């Protein structure tokens, strides 16, 4: 089916619109926007800049997508935003383009961004992520698969949120949050393994136990040196447990340090 565009919407004739797209009242769509098949823009949605959107995404009123970066280093060149498939952007969400042409802001697929969530310039979001109401991701943040950030959590620039991690409400994230963990507080600290989330996603009990053992070795001894604890874990953990291997690699690759 051809797109259905409300007569009050302002859509550039240069916009590329896929099949079966619905654009509601008072939406504004810029010239360099590409919208994939089956997307829905309910009303008052603004999409601008060089923004490429996949299929079956849903945008609720007053979502502002593809706005100019707020980074003062921006020099005015064309920059980009790439969005995958089957994402939901609730009311008043904001997503900004990258600062430099070489690095687009990217959002994967099957993500849910609740009201007032903000994704800043150069952020990289994977898949099946939930950003709850008023979550703020500062520039260059990275969020891995199946992470959940609870309401009003704030993430500092260049921080990473690991896969299957959960961040508590109003948490202040200033260092990387390891995968499979719970982080909460201001400033945030680790509160344990995300048992409930891992069980709901079908992780085997043996793998969850291995993560619990790794958590104890790495984080429960407050006076322990993390590098020494990591070396000890690498020497003893079962290499057939991919979750523990992923946890080790995440810590080893951290540039900001990890939340303890």
- Would you tell me which CATH topology of the largest domain applies? UDP N-Acetylglucosamine Acyltransferase, domain 1
Number of strands: 28
Name the CATH homologous superfamily of the largest domain.
Hexapeptide repeat proteins
Q: What's the helical proportion of residues?
A: 10-25%
**Low-confidence blocks of residues:** none
What's the pLDDT, averaged over the residues? 96
Estimate the global geometry from the Cα principal axes: elongated
Beta-sheet strand percentage?
Answer: 25-35%
Write down the domain tally.
2
Explain what you see.
The protein has 260 residues and is α/β, with parallel strands linked by helices. The chain folds into two domains: 4-143, UDP N-Acetylglucosamine Acyltransferase, domain 1 (3 Solenoid); 199-252, Udp N-acetylglucosamine O-acyltransferase, Domain 2. 17% of the residues lie in helices and 27% in strands. Strand 27 and strand 28 (189-193) form a beta hairpin. Helix 2 (205-219) packs antiparallel against helix 3. The chain is elongated, with a radius of gyration of 20 Å.
């Amino acid at each position: 089916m051809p797109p259905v565009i409300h007569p009050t919407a302002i859509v550039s004739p240069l916009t590329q619109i896929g099949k079966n797209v619905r654009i509601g009242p008072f939406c504004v769509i810029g010239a360099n926007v590409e919208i994939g098949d089956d997307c829905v823009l309910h009303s008052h949605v603004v999409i601008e800049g060089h923004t490429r959107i996949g299929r079956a995404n849903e945008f609720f009123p007053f979502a502002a997508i593809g706005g100019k970066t707020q980074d003062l280093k921006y020099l005015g060149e064309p920059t980009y935003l790439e969005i995958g498939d089957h994402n939901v952007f609730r009311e008043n969400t904001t997503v900004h383009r990258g600062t430099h042409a070489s690095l687009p802001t990217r959002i994967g697929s099957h993500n849910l961004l609740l009201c007032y969530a903000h994704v800043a310039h150069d952020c990289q979001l994977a898949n099946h992520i939930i950003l709850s109401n008023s979550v703020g991701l500062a520039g260059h943040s990275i969020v891995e698969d199946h992470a959940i950030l609870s309401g009003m959590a704030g993430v500092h620039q260049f921080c990473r949120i690991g896969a299957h991690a959960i961040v508590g409400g109003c948490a202040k994230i200033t260092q990387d949050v390891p995968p499979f963990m719970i982080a909460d507080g201001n400033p945030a600290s680790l509160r344990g393994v995300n048992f409930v989330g891992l069980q709901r996603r079908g992780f085997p009990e043996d793998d969850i136990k291995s993560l619990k053992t790794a958590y104890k070795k790495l984080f429960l001894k407050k006076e322990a040196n993390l590098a020494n604890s990591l070396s000890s874990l690498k020497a003893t953990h079962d290499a057939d447990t991919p979750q523990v291997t992923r946890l080790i690699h995440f810590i080893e690759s951290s540039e900001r340090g990890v939340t303890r």
